[in-house]
Amino acid sequence: MIFQKLQAFRQTIYDGFGTARDAVFDLMDAVLTSAGVSSFVSLSLSPVFRRQWSSIYAAVQDSRPPRAKLMKQYVQWVCTSEQPLLAGDHTGWFRRDAVTLRDRGWEHDAERGRPPVSVGQGYSTLAWIPETDGSWALPLRHERISSFETPISKAVFQLKQVTRQLSVRPLATFDREYGNASFVNQTQTIEVDLLLRVASNRVLWNAPPAYAG
């Protein structure tokens, strides 16, 4: 039963791709099944990549996946018998040596980065978490944060796009980068419940008590 669902899901996604979809699908399988990737061209040596090495470049250069259409297909698989759980995050990828890469900016990564701040690109991901136990997740939106955007503005945009397709009000979780008034104010009109982590040094204010005189 699960295998049949996986086959149906893969076929649906495959049909949604356009040019070079065979090479794109083989490339995605190679990424998912490779324990470690030493270089981009090394993915062509994966047993599941059934084409010549030059096809991995064609998969990236020629493919233009319809993101909005694919997102609608992903959302159809979200279980709505109970409140769906979404998780959002911002990940920075350092690209110090990629001097020809367009639209780089300053990214922060305290765990992997040495130093923790360097030049690169940031990505915003909004995923559906289908299980209370385990690590499976279905990314509904995964997009680069341009230099004209912020992680908060991108996350707000992604939440709007996903919730419009859901028939049930979801619960969305975000880390402390989003636990601030700016994110709360920009999401107040979106049909979503938020569970936010607040930074330990965040100061919260409420209405002052009546003047004691």
Task: State the major sheet.
Answer: 6 strands, mixed
In angstroms, what separates the terminal alpha carbons? Answer: 71 Å
> Could you tell me the strand content as a percent range?
15-25%
Order of SSEs, N→C? HHHHEEEEHEHE
Query: Percent range for helical residues?
Result: 25-40%
> Helix segment count?
6
Number of strands: 6
**Radius of gyration, taken over Cα atoms and rounded to an integer in Å:** 20 Å
Shape: globular
Report the structural category. Answer: alpha/beta
Oligomer class:
single chain
Mean pLDDT comes to 88
Task: Report low-confidence residues grouped into runs of 5 or more.
Answer: none
- Count of the separate structural domains: 2
Structure commentary:
This protein has 213 residues and is of the alpha/beta class. The chain folds into two domains: 2-65, no CATH class; 68-196, no CATH class. The protein has six helices and six strands, in the order ααααββββαβαβ. Strands 1, 2, 3, 4, 5 and 6 form a six-stranded mixed beta sheet that branches. A hairpin with an 8-residue loop joins strand 2 (105-108) and strand 3. Helix 2 (21-33) packs across helix 3. It is globular, with a radius of gyration of 20 Å. The model has no long low-confidence stretch (mean pLDDT 88).
